[in-house]
Each structure stands twice: as C-alpha cells, then as structure tokens.
Amino acid sequence: KRVCIVGLGYIGLPTAAVIASRGLEVIGLDVNQHSVDTINAGNIYIAEPDLDIIVRGVVSTGNLRATTEAEPADVFMIAVPTPFTKGHQPDLSFIKQAAEEIAPVLALGNLVILESTSPVGTTEKLANWLKELRPDLTFPQDQGELADINVAHCPERVLPGYILQELVSNDRVIGGLSKTCAEKAMALYKVFVRGECILTTARTAEMAKLTENSFRDVNIAFANELSVICDKLKINVWELIRLANRHPRVNILKPGPGVGGHCIAVDPWFIVDSCPEEAKLIRQARETNDAKPFYVLDKICAAADEFKRPIIACLGITFKPDIDDIRESPALHIVEELAARQVGQVLVVEPNLKHVPKELVEAGLEFCSLEAAFEQANVIAVLVDHKEFRETDKSEFASKVVIDTRGIF
Ligand code: SAJ
Predict the structure, then answer these.
(1) By alpha-carbon position, which residue is closest to atom 28 of ligand 1?
(2) Where would I find the UDP-glucose/GDP-mannose dehydrogenase C-terminal domain in this sequence (predicted)?
C-alpha cells in the first residue's frame, strides 16, 4: 500500500513518519520546497520529542519520501491547516488546494481521508470539489457504497509535545461518506493505532472534533472567569479551585493569561459560524478567553505604575508550557502590547526558544536569563508555567510585585 500525506506540518509529518515506520510506503506532499528538502535529507523543522529520530529512520530506509508534485497512491490523507478569517469564518482554501493537487492522480479504488479539523459539511465539500475535477470517476455522495473513490474524515486529536505517543494510543473517530468509506479508512488506521477506532458519519466526526476543543475552551473560560471574580473578591483562585476540585464530580481547569494555539482558540468559531443563533455559550467562552490577555495586561500596567522606573520581567511567551510554539500565544500578545504601550523596560525570559525572533527584539523586548530578570525587575509577570519557572526558588520573588497568571506559587 502506498499512502500520500498532503501537508507535512505538525500533524502530517508525524503521521507520515509513524505510518512509514509500520513498513508502508509513504509519500509526503508539501508545497514548501524547503520542507521537502529538509525531510529528504532526514531532518525536521518541527520541535516535537523523538520526531527527529523516527523521521531519520524512515527516510533512510526509503519508506518516507517528500515531494512537491502529487503522485499516484492508494490512500491520500489530507492534513493541511484550516485557519479562520478575521471575521471568524473558516478558511477552507488549503483543503481546496489539496483537492486540486491530488485530483489529477486519483484512480479507481482510491481512498481520500481528511484529517484537518473542519467545519461540519467539509468532507462533503471536499468530495464535491474532487467530483468536479474528475467527472470520469464516481463519488460516494452519488454512488454510495459503489463509488470509485471513497472519502472519509478522521480528525486528528494529538496533543503537541506528546504527538508520537498520542498518534498511536488515542482512540480515533472515523466518519465516512458511506459505510464502506469508513471501513476502508479504519483498515488504514488499524495499521498504526492501538486505541479503538470507532466508525460514524463524516458529519458526526467533524462535529466530534469541534466539540472536543469547544468543551475544553468553555471549561477554560469558566476557570478564567473565576480568576477575575476571585481577584475582585480577594480570594486566591488557585486555592479555591483546589478546594472545589475535592468534590467528586467537580474538575475545574486552570485559569491562565488566555487561550492560545491554533486549535482551541479557532475550532469553536467553526461551530459558531454554522449555528450563530444557537451557539451562545460557545461564543461567550471564546470571547471570555480572548478578553483575558487584556485583563492581565491591565494588571501588569497597574503594578508597573507603582514604580518610578518600572522594570517588568515576563516569564514565558509560548502558548503553553515546555514547548517552543508561539503561534496565537496570549503570553506573546501581552509582551508585545507591553512593549508598544511603553510602560517601562520589558525583560523576557523564554528558555524554550532557541532563536529569538528578530521582530521581538526590534519591538524593544530584551531577552535575558531568569537570574538576570530577577536581579533587575521590580514587577514579575508569570505568563507560562515552564518547568524552569516551576522549579525555581520562589523565595527570590519575595521582594517583587508578582502577577502569577499560571499559579506556580
Ligand atoms: N489552557 C489553560 N488552562 C488549562 C488548559 C489549557 O489556560 O487548564 C490553555 C493553554 O495554556 C493553551 C491553550 O489553553 O494556551 C490550549 O492548550 P491545550 O493544552 O489545552 O491544547 P492544544 O491546543 O495544545 O491541543 C488541543 C487538544 N485538545 C483537547 O485537549 C480537547 C489536542 O488533543 C488536539 O489534538 C489539539 O487541540 C488540536 O489539534 O485540535
């Protein structure tokens, strides 16, 4: 069996490597020549534990090969980004582009799997785009079980930092445009998934993925709202949550400086876009979480105002602890905004970034070590609970004004 993975990003590349490690022939298709060359040289451009070792292995055995030109295969797996527009509408252009790339090489008996997180109805759209591009083939929306091409949706659900474990151990929801589509897709996932594979329709699978991330978003919003309420009522929110969570049926998540990453801050909008009148709570959760960085900013500015020469040390700029990903990071947003507002000298400590982005230095941010930051700063803002910060001696903070958005104290 030959599998073509379209999109060699955070999901596509690990998936390609894991399938190749099971002995299948895998072709990685990507529009970025640099990515293709890097992989073919046995290297990677994504920070994810152990990914380098497995990619090097499967490239050296020839099981994984990257290319910018689509080639015939038995299975096509699409793992491209599904961002949203400024107006919070889903942008499906990468999926459409993927359809245009694979359509010319599609052949009778092929299976197309959409892995990208997508609004409800996208798998049907994908099948319709393919049908328009290949009128000589039949598709499940017309031919059902008898179609020439099978199309399924199997949303990824791996957690960055644990991608290689979770790819194998997580249960998978597999939605087909027909029963045959789902069963054929399951046969592929069984090659590398140890978790259970559960079959359903494509629409339900799409909604399941959006629901998972919205569930988390709503629960984080609850925690963030509690943190603001507790500030006002002069209660330590971390102690409060610890106590409330002693109840056997209560499990409150952690407040923070806001919600980042390219999944939880995006996916709930796909539900809101489909059902704007009905998705009231889901929309409110998004708005609550998006407002949190501004609340934290105001707190930092108020603390800085107490000093003649404010020196603010910001601990962490990634979107969550112990990773190097700064995309959609509320901590990064806070730090940039602090520099723009010119409230004082801003020091940034970020142990996980090997290279400091040039724009940030140009924006006036000074990157330094934790020790240097402690020595100079009068205000300390904990924005990410990296291991280095969790393990540091907290008595050093005693003489400072501390805004701890992650509860590491
Ligand atoms: N966060 C909090 N409080 C918490 C938990 C998280 O403020 O109690 C914040 C984090 O700091 C971060 C953001 O939420 O800024 C998201 O982090 P995350 O660890 O919750 O999730 P992601 O975005 O890394 O990955 C999520 C996962 N989804 C769920 O846990 C339901 C992952 O399984 C999905 O595969 C991934 O989205 C995705 O690709 O959709």
Answers:
(1) 213
(2) 313-408
226 lines ligand 1 (CB under 6 A): no
Whether 245 is in the pocket of ligand 1, judged by its Cβ within 6 Å, is no
| ipTM of the predicted assembly exceeds 0.85 | yes
Name the closest-CA residue to atom 38, ligand 1: 263
* Confidence (pLDDT) at 409: 80
**Residue 200 within any structural domain of the chain:** no
209 in active site? yes
pLDDT digits (tens, 9 = 90+) for 203-230: 999 999 999 999 999 999 999 999 999 9
Q: Of 132, 165, 195, which residue is a domain's last?
A: 195
Structural domain boundaries enclosing 30: 2-195
Contact by Cβ (8 Å): 346, 312 = yes
**Does one domain contain both 241 and 365?**
yes
Q: Say how far apart CA 207 and CA 210 lie, in whole Å.
A: 5
CATH of the domain at 165: 3.40.50.720
The rounded distance, in Å, linking the Cα atoms of 265 and 231 is 24
The residue behind tokens 């709930």 is: 268
Give me the residue label for tokens 């105001």. 298
In this structure, the answer to whether residues 118 and 252 fall within a common structural domain is no
- Is residue 235 lining ligand 1, measured as CB closer than 6 Å? no
Report the distance separating Cα 182 and Cα 171, nearest Å: 15
Ligand 1 atom with least separation from CA of 157: 35
DSSP string, 255-278: --S---SSSTTTHHHHHHHH-TTT
- 190 and 235 part of one domain: no
pLDDT at site 399: 84
Same domain assignment for residues 158 and 230: no
328 Rama class: left (phi>0) / alpha (psi -120 to 50) / beta? left
What global pTM score does this model have? 0.94
Give the whole-angstrom CA distance, residue 36 versus residue 271: 34
